[in-house]
Amino acid sequence: MPHTRQSLDIVTPFFNEAESAVAFAAMLADLEVEIAARFNCSVRTILVDDGSRDNGASRFAKSLTGNWEIIRLSRNFGKEVAVLAGLDRADADLVLIMDADLQHSKDVSLELIAALLAEPELDVVYAVNSREGSHSRGRLSKLFYKLINSSQRFDIPANAGDFRVMRRPVAKALTQLRDKRRFNKGLYAWAGFRDKAIPYSPAERVGGVSKWNGLNLLAFSLEAFTSFSVVPLRIVSVAGLLAAFAGAAYGLKVLIEVLFYGVAVPGYPSLAVGVMLFGGLNLAMLGLIGEYVWVTLSESKDRPVYIVRDVVESRSRDTQQ
Ligand code: UDP
Ligand code: MG
User: Fold this and answer.
1) 15 lines ligand 1 (CB under 6 A)
2) Cα–Cα distance between 128 and 70 in angstroms, integer?
3) Does the beta carbon of 73 sit less than 6 angstroms from any atom of ligand 1?
4) Which of 82, 96, 11 is nearest to 52 (CA)?
């Protein structure tokens, strides 16, 4: 372990987590003590209020001890963007990202840090949710990773989220990726670096509800694909080609029947089926291409990724510097 005192920033995004504030602050106080004792690190917590509509920010401000700041965004930008806002403020040797709902425990956090500091060659240690995988949503998510990883030079590991600790160069690299529609798992993988996974099983939320449901999971997957994969477009092209060949073959068959066997072609049912089938396929594929065009459009606008409303800081900045 190096003699110089290292610094560690904890980045935590929160959205409507007033119910978790007190418990989170208590956990954090313990975590800070243990980090200081075990790793000789000074700790600062950077909370990002992702446009909460409850009084979460003031509850956090009241409960937190030690060295902290709360960055309040001007509205809800989504967890992925809130994490970026936190990383933009972070400047420590190590950066730990964890949730505010206590699903990411103190013990696993310590395990991540210990694993990273144990190997100087490692840049990132991330936690992998070992509970996912068997139920139907788990199978769907397996399919999702298989598809999205089918055409690129880097692999997005399954069930690895934002719960991770990284060295400063990694955090810096991530802040250089200014995608507005962010898919963090993809960005981590894109950035590269040497990483290691540690399995964990997330705890229950202390309060409030998860912000994920079927619909926004679907939107999230679409976002992931449109920013990290060209596979859907390839499927569209191949499907189009196959349909064209099938059409040509069918046309040839009809032509032969008429010319050589004098069969009167019963046109109407096959026409109706063909028109409906390919009309529908056309619309679906146009929609898909539209998704990619929309991504291009939103990324090409020169807007910032997020806007900060204000920053609230603890007064005790003595442990830092
Ligand atoms: N979160 C956020 N902005 C959002 C949604 C969630 O900052 O728009 C925060 C949330 O407060 C929590 C973390 O991101 O600290 C993870 O969210 P959640 O618990 O809803 O996700 P899950 O644990 O179910 O994956
Ligand atoms: Mg959660």
Assistant:
1) yes
2) 27
3) no
4) 82
**AA identity, residue 260:** F
Query: Is the Cβ atom of 211 under 6 angstroms away from ligand 1?
Result: yes
Give the C-alpha separation, 33 to 47, whole Å. 18
Half-sphere exposure (CA, 13 Å, Cβ side) for 293? 6
Class of domain 6-212+304-320: alpha beta
Gap from CA of 210 to ligand 2 centroid (Å)? 6
pLDDT tens per residue across all 321 residues of the chain: 455 789 999 999 999 999 899 999 999 999 999 999 999 999 999 999 999 999 888 999 998 998 999 999 999 999 999 999 999 999 999 999 999 999 999 999 999 999 999 999 999 999 998 876 556 667 788 888 888 888 777 888 888 889 999 999 999 999 999 988 888 988 999 999 999 999 988 888 877 778 777 788 888 888 888 887 878 877 887 888 888 778 888 888 888 888 888 777 677 777 877 787 788 788 878 888 888 888 888 888 889 999 999 999 887 544 444
User: CA-based angle 262:263:266, to the nearest 5?
Assistant: 145
* Alpha-carbon gap, residue 13 to 280, rounded angstroms: 41
Q: How far does the centroid of ligand 2 lie from the alpha carbon of residue 54, in Å? A: 17
Residue 159 to residue 105: CA distance in whole angstroms = 17
- Give me the count of residues in the chain: 321
Query: 131 φ, ψ to 5°?
Result: -85, -25
Which ligand sits nearest to residue 14's alpha carbon? Answer: 1
CA terminus-to-terminus distance, the chain: 20
Kindly give the distance from the C-alpha atom of residue 103 to the centroid of ligand 2, in angstroms, as a whole number: 6
Left, alpha or beta for 27 (phi > 0: left; psi -120 to 50: alpha)? alpha
**Nearest-CA residue for atom 11 of ligand 1:** 14
Closest C-alpha residue for ligand 1 atom 8: 78
pTM, 2 dp: 0.79
**Which residue, judged by its Cα, is nearest atom 5 of ligand 1?**
79
How far away, in angstroms, is 249 Cα from ligand 1 center? 52
